[in-house]
From TrEMBL:
<dbReference type="InterPro" id="IPR016164">
    <property type="entry name" value="FAD-linked_Oxase-like_C"/>
</dbReference>
<dbReference type="Pfam" id="PF01565">
    <property type="entry name" value="FAD_binding_4"/>
</dbReference>
<dbReference type="InterPro" id="IPR036318">
    <property type="entry name" value="FAD-bd_PCMH-like_sf"/>
</dbReference>
<protein>
    <recommendedName>
        <fullName>FAD-binding PCMH-type domain-containing protein</fullName>
    </recommendedName>
</protein>
<keyword id="KW-0285">Flavoprotein</keyword>
<dbReference type="InterPro" id="IPR016166">
    <property type="entry name" value="FAD-bd_PCMH"/>
</dbReference>
<dbReference type="InterPro" id="IPR006094">
    <property type="entry name" value="Oxid_FAD_bind_N"/>
</dbReference>
<feature type="domain" description="FAD-binding PCMH-type">
    <location>
        <begin position="153"/>
        <end position="330"/>
    </location>
</feature>
<dbReference type="InterPro" id="IPR016169">
    <property type="entry name" value="FAD-bd_PCMH_sub2"/>
</dbReference>
<keyword id="KW-0274">FAD</keyword>
<dbReference type="Pfam" id="PF02913">
    <property type="entry name" value="FAD-oxidase_C"/>
</dbReference>
<dbReference type="InterPro" id="IPR004113">
    <property type="entry name" value="FAD-bd_oxidored_4_C"/>
</dbReference>
<dbReference type="InterPro" id="IPR016171">
    <property type="entry name" value="Vanillyl_alc_oxidase_C-sub2"/>
</dbReference>
<keyword id="KW-0560">Oxidoreductase</keyword>
Amino acid sequence: MFPRSMAALHLRGRVIPGSPNLPFARMHKSSYPSHGHHKPLTWKSRLLWFSAGTISSVAVLAYKSSVISDQLRHQENLCRADTMRNDSTLPMKKTLNSFGKAQSPLKPRHNITDENMKEARKEFLTIVGCTGIDDNPGNLKSRSSTEWSRSPVETYASFIVFPQSTKQVSEIMKVCHKRRIPVTGFSGGTSLDGALASTRGGICIDFSRMNKILELHERDMDVIVQPAVGWEDLNEYLARVGLFFPPDPGPGAQIGGMIGTGCSGTNAYRYGTMKDWVISTTIVLADGTIVKTRNRPRKSTAGYDLTRLMVGSSGTLGLVTEAVLKVTAKPENVQVAVIAFPSTYKAVSTVIDAVQRGLPLAALELLDENTMSAVNQSGYTDKEYKVTPTLFVKFSGTKEAVKEQINVLGALAEKYGRESFESSGDPEEIDALWSARKTALWSFIAQKRDPDDKFLSSDVAVPISRLADIIEETKDMVQKVDLLGSTLGHVGDGNFHTGILYGEKDKAVAEKIIADLQRRAVEMEGTVTGEHGVGLALRDMLEEELGENAIDMMRKIKFALDPLCLLNCDKIVRVEAAEPSEEPA
């Protein structure tokens, strides 16, 4: 009776390790000792059965003890996880370890030792071949730090890997996941937010060999591309069939980076931003998993919008290897107007009136007097412009519609005392006029007083009724400290950029101006970044704009998809407490 009762007590509905896969409660009677009218057992049989039962009972008790210990450990881990979830991880000082000391519970533990990287390199060679890896020091630095987006650290990737397909990206990430190697993605390299900085070392995945336009569906008006396709090359290709892809950030930008930053450009006033033109993406997650976020229809409510989650994520959640993009009809009857004003306030007032009237302008841009001076001196254009705040406006549509738009805008500009109004519909002249706007950033950077001067910029956007106020306030701040600054931007949607050139001795002053400008934008219910993205540069300001709960939610999304923090670690949200020198100004 003892063995049977112990078995019933401890193993009802369970399986003994090493026994046939059948719960004790389901075993047939014949498997137990026979009693009643069956032949009685001999004393040897009873002794043998009792010994077997005792051994089984001991095994059962050991197994039960192991199960209970595992359950207790699991409950303890759940409690720790609950504590982590209930404590916001920004600011980091609110998160305490078991000793009551501030620390990040999510501190990445990467392995970039020479030995690990050497072995990883061997595995990468089997994936991309000997021509698919580069460790030239100059190339490593250029993938992490640029003239317009300097890395704050001297840490670079150990080498660059050049995949040619989604499958190769997946295999590369599987190696990195297994070996805990951090990864930074690279496409056009034109970003301004520090997203390229290789803060943890590891490897850089350069997508330059994934530069194909894979499929064009003319009747559906969409196109499938790889991440290193440039928007300019794409539009040249689409123009052959009368189609057009509107997002137009800086020259050289490529689709992968454009998705990562959620960029826009001069066409955003009429056509919207990058998020409005991405239908679907194919992405590779940190562990090498390949995910397609949508099919190709123009509308879908199929679950969470994973496509929009990727747009603006700076490569922190997944690596984009393909994208399905919407395209539209190429604009007709394009004309450009250049309108000079006596002051920024009068130029912006004209813009506000045009927006409130609902004029369907194709683009509406502002360059201040310092920027216009830089354009004249840069040599990028043959035309000489007035050194005064100037609007660059693009029109498109039917001939009648364009004519009406020009007349209405001309009357508004006259109302605010414009100094000149020049327009043209000639394609060559349009290119010449618009090139002044598209090269304005590079023209300004070329105005350095000293070759060692650095460039710092902002990307704020505010409700359009506050635009003139914040631009004037910013110009006053720059002028008071005698630094060279410029203001330009997509004023039709309230987004503008202030650039400052400064020497090392003025670094703190320049950073304070940009920080004060960003806080002023937030006070006006605006944003610290309209199109450049958060990257590394704005992660602390992001909390001031959205609050710590929103930042904590973003961090949890990050670690749900990338628990080892391999993908572009440190961007958008912090994963470790800031050093005193890193605190925002």
